[in-house]
Q: What sequence folds into this?
């Protein structure tokens, strides 16, 4: 999510609040919002603690209770007992291996190379 997207959210959020709604910005992944999100919300005059939810906190806020474990259990049951956390860990290992083969020893080195 970039600064322009957050600014767009801020404009729309102010309009929604004026109409009696409670808008939330909910990035779709991660446990913590990128700094650009929190900083831009603050620059736009919106308190991130009121307008931003990430990860499990977002699910709990939207469902009105903590349903995270139920969702994970449901995914396992519907997928034939596939452990999505194990799959994610395997994918990370594959990606790290591919980076090493390309001569990039760490994620930090990759980020430095592309920025």
A:
């Amino acid at each position: 999510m970039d600064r322009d997207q957050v600014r767009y959210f801020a404009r729309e959020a102010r309009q929604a609040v004026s109409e009696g709604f409670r808008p939330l910005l909910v990035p779709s992944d991660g446990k913590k919002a990128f700094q650009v999100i929190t900083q831009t919300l603050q620059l736009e005059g919106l308190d991130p603690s009121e307008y931003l939810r990430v990860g499990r906190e977002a699910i709990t806020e939207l469902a009105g209770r903590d349903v995270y474990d139920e969702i994970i259990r449901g995914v396992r049951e519907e997928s034939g007992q596939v452990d999505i956390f194990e799959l994610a860990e395997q994918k990370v290992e594959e990606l790290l291996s591919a980076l090493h083969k390309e001569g990039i020893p760490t994620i930090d080195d990759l980020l430095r190379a592309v920025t």
Notes: DSSP finds seven helices and no strands in the chain. The helical segments are 3-18, 35-43, 48-51, 56-63, 68-78, 84-101, 107-114.
